[in-house]
Amino acid sequence: MELMGQSDAPEYLLFGAIAAGIGILAAIVMAMGVLRKDEGQDNVKHIGDLIREGAMAFLRREYLLLSVFVVIVTVIIALFIDFNILDNDKIDELNGVARDTGIDAEGPWTAIAYVIGAIGSGLAGFVGMSIAVRANTRTATAAQTGLNEALRVAFGSGTVMGLTVTGIGLLGITVLWVIFRDANIVAGFGFGASSIALFARVGGGIYTKAADVGADLVGKVEVGLPEDDPRNPAVIADNVGDNVGDVAGMGADLFESYVGAMIASLALATAGASFLGLENGGYDSALFAFPIALAGIGMIASIIGTFFVRTGPDATMGRLLWSLRAGIFGAGIITIIAAGGLIQALDLEYDLLWVVITGLVVGQVIGTATEYFTSYENKPTQWIAKQSETGPASVIIAGVAVGLLSTVIPAIAIVVGIAIANEFAGLYGVAIAAVGMLSTLGITLATDAYGPVADNAGGIAEQAHLDPEVRERTDALDALGNTTAATGKGFAIGSAVLTALALMVAYTTVTGIATLEGGKLVSLGLSITEPDVLIGMILGGMLPFLFAALTMQAVGTAANAMIVEVRRQFAEIPGLREGVEGVEPDAARAVDISTQGALKAMILPGLIAIISPVVVGAVISAEALGGLLVGSIISGFLLAIFMANAGGAWDNAKKYVELGNHGGKGSDQHAAVVVGDTVGDPFKDTSGPAINILLKLMAVVSVIFGPLFI
Fold this sequence. Notes:
This protein has helices at residues 10-35, 42-80, 88-95, 106-142, 147-180, 183-222, 235-271, 273-276, 286-305, 317-345, 351-374, 379-386, 392-405, 408-438, 441-463, 468-510, 531-572, 587-601, 603-619, 622-658, 668-705; strands at 514-517, 520-523.
């Protein structure tokens, strides 16, 4: 099978940088448009200021702690690790060519790339959260005018996040590749992005769910307050958590997903150079330019797709969903058409177009399946809500069943996608399918990131005592946001499998466990009959469960502290429960409890992800580490889908009851689905989405440290 295009294609690498610049510029323009919207009356501004101050305070403390970690890892990479991830000399020998990348000492440069990746991941989350905490008040104010106006403001802030994440990621990858033409160094960029993303997602997830659980169990269930009632001490902390977890954490998460897919493509193109037939100067060849240029096409298509998102003033949940789908589908179609032109221009085989289509279709299948299992307009979530008539235990059982069942379609879709991509373009095609799946992340992430803004807007409307119609509109957007957020998690988890698989292949080639021949992996030692491999697979299968247990336990511990504090304030502050004018809760104390709990608890899960591959490879063998990656991919993929979808379904079952079904707000049935939602919160916003980062982080750590285990 021939895929190339022998000619160099530096101009298409330049296109990647230009597209990234256009995306960042578009994000700036859209941010200015959001900020020009009316912020609202004084009480709305005051609540928004409290949320913004709390979110920024947490982020400063989190980033300060992570900066210490980054400095330590940077020193280790620069001084103590002999990087030789992909042996360029060996590749050149196989091809009978002489090529000099100009890099004599990779360690220091890889350390610099690591720092850039870490900064890029943190910056993506910071920018997204900065616009989100300013868009929430503007969304609440716009909702006083109509649903479409509120959607435009919230979606605009989400678009800023989407284009910022993809713009920074694409620019970083392109610049590093153009300068160094070395997959070793670019892998350092991915390591930095993944490590920060894991801590940010876990830390933010623990924060937001500790506050959410405390606010729900005491405020709503025990005291009987409405959601986001200003008397509830945990409400501001809950609103802050929406931003630090669902915006900043998610932005860092999808940043590393996006760059990870491109890095996997570059690594496989390098590792399989004998198959790919690269000639002298091959690091500028079409196969290296293609994933970068494809991401650039997706960037432009995402910008165009945002203009397709429109809805009427009285739109239903289904109409809102189709409005967002119009943008996603439009961007996907534009990407496919332009990808065909790119393949022709690069003189590549059109088999790669089918690979790109496969990635986009598999992502959409996973997204649509997620929508079906989590939207309250569909039977699975309605069935969970119906179980509330027999109590919270029935709700929990139903949610677990729906979550388990929801793994089937994504699993089949991924299997079919891997088979098709491998058939058309070998394992390089598997990595390209991941790039294709995430190529339109600019708009996919926009449909995800606007949800927390709408959720915050609803809380602000409640606390500011705005017209009930405003809360109804923001609740409609929030419910849709739960579904689109679950869809975004599905895309991230699906791409994680493809990316982790591609990185695992790169690991086996750099350690000599296997080689690429004809685009296929030929095993030299990674056989499932080998005891070391079986040991590694069992350990790898266990790690996502250990990781999920630690993060769930962290949420539980922090939530317990929050519950005790909320109960104390209701008991000790006279007039708080009754809503006496002038009596306010100590929101700052609740914010501090969530902050302390999150920062302490995020360390151990993050270290496990980084240390486990190194320990297994060093203590047991390189083959055992290969088995660990296989086991983690299989169990982690299914566990992540289960947790994300079960949590999303529980959340929307609660909202379905709150619409007046099965007794409505204040009924025993409502109390039952609130319990389900409380269990589901850490499922969908902490443990589930963080698992996909775990898979890729362990894979990229294995690639970087792999030569030490030979």
